Amino acid sequence: MNSPWKGKAKATNQDYDDLRPTITYRHLLSNNLGVRDPLRVVALCDSDAFYAACERIRLELDPSVPIVVQQWESLIAVSYPAREFGISRMDKIKDAKKKCPNLLAVHVATYKEGEKEPGYWTDIDTRTHKVSLDLYRRESNKIISMFKEALPTGEVEKASIDEAFIDFTRPVREQLLERYPYIAQVPVDAPNGIDSPLPPPPPIKWDDLGTVILPEEIDSAGEQSNIEVDGDATWHDVALSIAAELMRKIREDIHSKLGYTTSAGIARNKFLAKLCASYKKPNSQTILRNRAIPDYLHPLPFQKIRFLGGKLGDALAKEYDVSTVGDLLTVSLDEIQSKFGENALWVYEFLRGIDRTEVKEKSALFKSMLASKNLPKPIIQPSDGHQWIRILAAELALRLNDARVSMPTLWPKSIVLHARKGYETSRSKQATFPFVRNVTVDVIATAADKLWKDLTDDAKTVNITSVQLAFTGLEKTEMGQKSIEGFFTTRDVQQTSLKRSREDDEPLVSPEKTLPTSSYVEAVSFKCTRCRKTIALREDQATGGPNEVAQRLATLRSEHGDFHFAQDLAHSTDGSVPVPRGSSSKRKKVESEGIAKFFIKK
Ligand code: DCP
Ligand code: CA
Predict the structure, then answer these.
(1) Which of 236, 257, 440, 498 has the smallest number of Cβ neighbours within 10 A?
(2) What pLDDT band is residue 70 in, cutting at 50, 70 and 90?
(3) Rounded to the nearest 5°, which phi and psi values hold at 264?
(4) UmuC domain location, by residue (predicted)?
C-alpha cells in the first residue's frame, strides 16, 4: 500500500476544537437548539445481566445467588455473582456447572402445545417447545416507563431489549434555570446582550455522582474523581453533573421498585454515552466530560466503535494501516471522503467525539409481529403442522394482547404463514385477519390452520423445516378508539344473548365487507410516526367508496414515506438509511454509492 496517510503522526487536541465552546445566554435561553446545543447531555442506561436479573426477580432470589439463563444448551445471560466463578456466555452449561457447583441454571420460558401461556416446564425439548422472551419484553417495558415517568420533558429511545438512550438536555435546562436563577435573565449591563457569555459556573461536587473519566494529566497525577474544585469546570460540566444526579435517582428508583441494577454512561452525545456506559459495571454510572474526550478516545481501537466494527472498519484499517482512533485522526476529511464518499463525514466526526444523531423515541408501533420456529425435526405429515401453529398462535396472542394494553385499537390487517423446506425459499399464504372482539389463541390458530391447508395444498407429505406466523399491517385503527368500541358494543348487544358461549372466539365480521361506511369516513388521515404530523387527504380525495379512499390514503402514506426517505438520504451521516419495503432500483443505486456499500448485505 502506498498511501500517504499512514496515520502514525501524533494527533493534537486541535482536532477537538469544540470541547470548550463559549456558552452564551442565547444558548441557554433558546428553546430548541437540537443536536447542536452546546449544553446537550445524553445518557445510555443498560440493565446488568438482564435476562438473569429478570429470572432472579421472578423467583424472588437473593441478588448474591449465582444464576444463569440458558436456551437449550447455551448460556444467554450470566449474573454478576456467577461471573465471579469465571463463567461467561461462551461457556456450555456443563462447563459452567463445573466452575460453580451451586450455579442455578434457569431455562428460558417456552411455549408448548396446548398451553396458552409460556411456562417453565421440566420436559423442555427444542423438538416440541419454542422459546418465549415475553417476560423480558414486559420487564423491559416497565423500566422504559420509569424513565419516561421520571423525565416528562426528556426524550427516551429504546435501543435494545435492555438499553435506552435518554436525552437529558431539557430536564437539565429546567434545573439549571431553577437552581441558578441569576443566569435566567440577561443582565442589563451584559456587553453583548443575549450573546454575552454566561458568568463562570459554580464549583461542582462530583461525589456520589458516579465515575468521572479524567483527562490523562489529572488521572496520572493520582487525583480522585471528586477533585472538582479545579476552577476549570464549564457550564457543560454543570449540565453533566445535573444529568448524573437525575440518572442516579432514576436508577435507584428502578432498583428499589423493580429490583434491577443498571449501568449508565453520561456524555454530550449518544455515541459517547454508549461508549462509556460499560466503563464500569455493574450498578454504576460513568461521566465523560468534554475535556476528557480526547484522551479517552485516542487509545481506543476504532474497530470497537459501533458502525466501525464491520467491513468499513476493516477497510479503514487496511487503507491507512492503523488501529486506534488516535492513528486515524491524521487522515483529513477530504481524504476520507474521497475514498469513502461524502457520507463518510460521520466517520470523521465520530473519531472526534462528535455525533449529531438525535435521541428519538421510535414508534412503539411495529408494523408486524412475528413468531417463528426452526424445526429440529422437519414436519413430514401435514397434520403435524397443527401443533406448531398452536404454539406460534399462543405467542402472537400474548404479544398482541400485551401491546393492546397501551394501544387498545391496535389491529392486524393480515395474518401470514410462511413455511420453508430446507434451504429453499419460503412459501407463504396470507389472509385478512378476522375482526373479533378478543384475539385468542383459537382465533389465530383457526385462521392459520386455513393458511396451512392452502400452503400444503393437500399434499400427502411435506418436508417443512421452518414455520413462521406473523401479523402484518399492524395499526392503531384509524377509526379511533371510540368508533371501534362503539362498533363492538352494538355488535355485542346483538350477539351476547344469542351466542354467549362462543362469542370470544368467534370472528364477528370481516372489516372489508361489513363495516359501516361511516367508520371509513374518518380514515382520511394518518399520523406519521416519524414527524408526528397528521397527513390528510384533500377533501376531494376523501370522497367515494371506502376502498377507493383507503387506496388513496395508502398512496399518500407511501408518498409521505418517500419524502422521509429522501430527507434521510440527504441528511444521512451514517449511510444506513432505512430502506422502505418495495424500494425502487433508483434508490438502490443511490445507496450503493460511497460508504453505503460497506453496510449493504450482499
Ligand atoms: N442476549 C442473548 N444473546 C446474546 C446476547 C444477549 O440472548 N448473544 C440477551 C440476554 C441478555 C440481554 O440480551 O441478558 C442483554 O444483553 P447484554 O449484552 O446487555 O448482556 P447482559 O445484560 O446479560 O449483561 P451486561 O451486564 O454485560 O449488560
Ligand atoms: Ca445489559
Answers:
(1) 498
(2) very high
(3) -135, 150
(4) 42-309
